[in-house]
Amino acid sequence: MIPKTSIEKQLTALSSSLAPITPEMQSWAEKNIFLKWAVLSRGKFYCLECAHSWKPDNVSACSKFTNCTACKGKLKMQSCNQVHFKEIEYFSILETCAGYQVVRIIIAYKHMKKNFAPTYFCKEVMQHWISQKGEVRSLSISTNVFSNAIDAWKFYSPLEIKPKDFFRNAKYYINPYKVYPKMKVLPILKRNGFKSSVYDIAPHLLFSSLLADPIAETLLKAKQQNLLQYYLGASRQRVKYNWQAVKTAIRNSYKITDVQIWEDYLELLRYFKKDLSCPAYVCPENLSMAHDHLVQKKRELLRKKKLQDLRLEIEKAQKRYASDKKRFFGLFFKEKELSISVIENVKDFMQEGDDLGHCVFTNEYYDRKDSLILSAKMAEKSVETIEISLSRMEILQCRGIKNNASKHHERILSLMSKNLYQIKARMKQKHKKV
Question: Which residue from 40, 335, 395, 402 puts its CA 20 to 30 A from 104's CA?
C-alpha cells in the first residue's frame, strides 16, 4: 500500500531508519526459542543439534525425550524419520522511535538434517507502531494469497504500510513465542504497570490496551494475569459486563484459576439473583465445586417445571437453533474409535450436560450465535464437548466430565483442528446462497 496520509508517510520513513536485526539478536534467538531435537533411524539416535549419533541401550525408554551423549543436551524425539527437519518460531524486539513504541516481529527458521549441524534463517516480517494514545499502525511484508497458511511470507517483498483495518487480519494477531530481553519501552507504559513480562500476550495488543484501556491497566497493576490474558485474547469474554465482580475479586486478592469457568459461574449467580459485590459468592475457595453445585441446583429447578412447558421450550429453541446452525448439521469426523459430530437437537444439549456434568444446556449454549457446539464420543459415549468460534474459526473450549480434560483430550483437539476447514467451507456455502 502506498502511504498517503502524513502519518503513513512518517511511519514509512521512520521504519526505514530502524537498525537491522543484529547478529547478537539472531544468536539469542537460535539459543532460546528453538527446541533441541533427536531422531531414531535404523536403531541409532541422531542428535540434530550437534550431529552426533549413537546406539542406545534401550530404545523404548526414549519414546519422548533422550539425552545426547556428546553435547549433553535434553533432546525431544521427532515423531517420524525423514531426511530434512524444520522448526519455525516467531520472536519480537521492543524498541522506541520518535515517541512511538515499536514492536518488531521476526520469523526464525531452524533447518536440521542427520549428521549435519543445524542452520538458521531470520527475517523481519511485521512492525507495529503504537502511539502514546494506544493507536496501532502496522507494516508488513506480502504473503502468498493462494496459500492455506496465513503466514506464507514473500521474503523478497519490502515492509509496506497497512490500512487501519489491518487489525481484522489474522496476521495482526500473530503472537511471538518470546521477546528479546534487551527491550526499550516508553516511560508511559512503565507508569501504566508494564515491567518486563508480556504474560504470553502479543506485545502490541498488550501495549495498545495499556495505553487506551483503563481495564487492562487495572488488571495488570492488580496482578490478575490470567484475567488480563483472557480479556485481551478471548473472542467471547465479558470482563466489562462482569466488572463489578472483577473489582470484588481484586479487592480480596482472589486469583482466578479458570476464567471461562468463573464467567459461567457468574452467570449462574445472576440467575439466582446473588449479590456480585459479595466476596462469599464471587470468590469461592473451590471454584469448580461451587460452579458444579449451582449447575446442579439450576438443573433441578429446570426439571421441576412441568414436562409440557419444557417440551414447548425445547421445541421453540430447536426452531431457532435449526435456523441458525442447519448448514452445519451432518458434519462428522472420525479417527478409529473416536468420532466428533455437531449436536443437532436442543434435547441432546440436555443429555450432553447430564452425561458430562457441565453447563452446556443450563447456560443455553445453543443460543450463542457465534458458537458451534460439537460432541466427541468414544464407542458412542460422550467424552468431551467442543465449542468453536465461527467468526475466528478457533476452538474456544473442549471439556469433559465436570469441565476437566479427558484422557483423549489431545486426540480430540488434533482431530478437530484438522477438520476446521470443513466448518469454514459450510460458512462459505451459506454466503454463496445469500
Answer: 395
For residue 290, the number of C-alpha atoms closer than 13 Å in the C-beta half-sphere is 18
C-alpha 276/C-alpha 266 separation (Å) is 8
Q: What letter does residue 140 receive in the DSSP assignment? A: E
Task: Give the Cα separation of 331 and 372 in Å (integer).
Answer: 11
- Spacing of C-alpha 290 from chain mean position: 26
Q: Are the C-beta atoms of residues 299 and 353 closer than 8 Å to each other?
A: yes
Residue with cell 429447578: 301
- Collapsed DSSP state (helix, strand, coil) of residue 117: strand
CA gap 77, 60 in Å, rounded: 12
pLDDT band at 83 (very low <50, low <70, confident <90, very high): confident
Name 372's bridge partners. 388
pLDDT digits (tens, 9 = 90+) for 297-331: 988 887 776 556 777 778 888 888 888 888 899 99
Distance between CA atoms of residues 182 and 173, nearest Å: 23
Q: What tens digit of pLDDT does each residue of 130-163 get?
A: 999 999 999 999 999 888 888 899 999 999 999 9
Q: What is the total residue count of the chain?
A: 434
Q: For 383-418, write each residue's pLDDT tens digit.
A: 999 999 998 889 999 999 988 999 999 999 999 999
Q: Determine the residue type at 381.
A: K
Cα R_g (the chain), whole angstroms: 25
Q: How confident is the model over 225-254, as pLDDT tens digits?
A: 999 999 998 878 899 999 999 999 999 999
